[in-house]
Recover the amino acids of this structure.
């Protein structure tokens, strides 16, 4: 793809992209890749044991200080977005701060209201059972969805504590051009949002039932309150983040 006419000369950077499932995590990762491609940075898969083999994207399945430092070294002449579903493990906040301070690392994480995610997971479970797929088939109601979601939320909170820039599903999906600009600022890159929108239209993204605040119309107040209680740490984190302003 053709990017900007003048490419910036910026420090190399490893971009780690994590997202709570069913929260636009694929869209956010592809948005980061699109911004890097727009600016002339190759996103081909690294020839490294630190990423999952035989994938079309750079995907990391485990993290510790050694893995993080290894990936930073292997991307020193590039800017590379690496997607992950895994927790940060025992990565030290001091190491992250040091790498981020030198322009070598950026962590991004996406989230969505857990009440909307629960509804999306229930949809996915119903669809899986109807079509004979194993993934999500065990999610047959609100309690199963809540149980399934706990792990992703826990991982999100862990990444958010490592200087992650947080991106909200509603902004990614329904305010795309402004979110592209915000992500570009976060990565220190110029952008023409229409270029990235075109890239996203061609890239693989998981297009599910894209409706903001579904829970207001589709969830009972009792179930809504139950989810708020189950994920009280998450709601408190998002409340503090909103009060502090975007990061």
């Amino acid at each position: 793809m053709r990017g900007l006419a003048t490419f910036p000369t910026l420090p190399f950077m490893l971009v780690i992209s994590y997202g709570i499932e069913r929260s636009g995590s694929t869209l956010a990762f592809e948005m980061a890749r699109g911004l890097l491609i727009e600016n002339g940075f190759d996103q081909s898969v690294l020839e490294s044991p630190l990423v999952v083999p035989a994938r079309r994207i750079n995907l990391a399945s485990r993290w510790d200080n050694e893995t993080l430092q290894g990936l930073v070294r292997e991307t020193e002449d590039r800017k590379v977005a690496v997607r992950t579903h895994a927790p940060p493990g025992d990565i030290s906040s001091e190491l992250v701060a040091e790498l981020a301070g030198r322009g070598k690392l950026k962590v991004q994480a996406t989230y969505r209201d857990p009440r909307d995610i629960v509804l999306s997971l229930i949809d996915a479970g119903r669809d899986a059972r109807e079509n004979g797929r194993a993934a999500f088939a065990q999610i047959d109601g609100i309690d199963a969805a809540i149980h399934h979601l706990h792990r992703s939320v826990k991982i999100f909170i862990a990444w958010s504590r490592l200087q992650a820039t947080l991106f909200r599903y509603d902004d990614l999906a329904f305010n795309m051009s402004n979110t592209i600009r915000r992500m570009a600022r976060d990565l220190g890159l110029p952008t023409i949002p229409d270029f990235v929108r075109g890239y996203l239209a061609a890239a693989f993204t998981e297009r599910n039932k894209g409706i903001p605040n579904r829970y207001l119309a589709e969830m009972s107040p009792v179930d809504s309150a139950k989810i708020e209680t189950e994920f009280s740490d998450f709601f408190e984190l998002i409340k503090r983040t909103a009060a502090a302003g975007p990061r």
About this structure: The two ends are 29 Å apart (CA to CA). The CA atoms of residues 22 and 117 lie 6 Å apart. The domain at 13-244 is CATH 3.40.50.300 (Rossmann fold). The first helix runs from residue 25 to 38.
